[in-house]
Amino acid sequence: xKLITAIVRPEKLDAIREQLxxxxxxxxxxxxxxxxxxxRGYVQVYRxxxxxxxxxxxxxxxxxxxxxxxxxxxxxxxxxxxxGSQGDGKIWVVEVQDAVRVRxxxxxxxxx
Length: 112
Hints:
- By secondary structure, the chain is of the alpha+beta class.
- The chain is 22% helix and 37% strand.
- The protein is built from 2 helices and 6 strands, in the order βαββββαβ.
- The strands form 2 sheets. The chain has a 4-stranded antiparallel β-sheet with strand order 2-5-1-6, covered by helices on one side.
- A hairpin with a 2-residue loop joins β3 and β4.
- It is elongated and about 60 Å long.
- Pfam families: P-II (PF00543).
- GO terms for molecular function: ATP binding; enzyme regulator activity.
């Protein structure tokens, strides 16, 4: 099993979710995140005052998948999240040793 984690632009959530649903993904977890990458934030002017935004709002999407589905899900997330501009985000994949469905006690791929 694999855990696919993406930190992406908030406005891309609906596109990613629709893409994953069309791929047959049963569930995902979404949470708010903030941070910066190479762009290191930006300077904004509000009512004549200049201020620095160091942490940019993002969302974190996590999907647990079988080994067979992982590459397809990864490619779908890349396609849906990409704008071609700096700040599109990062996606990483890690190996998952075990998963348990709490309600039934199912383990492994059947718990997904």
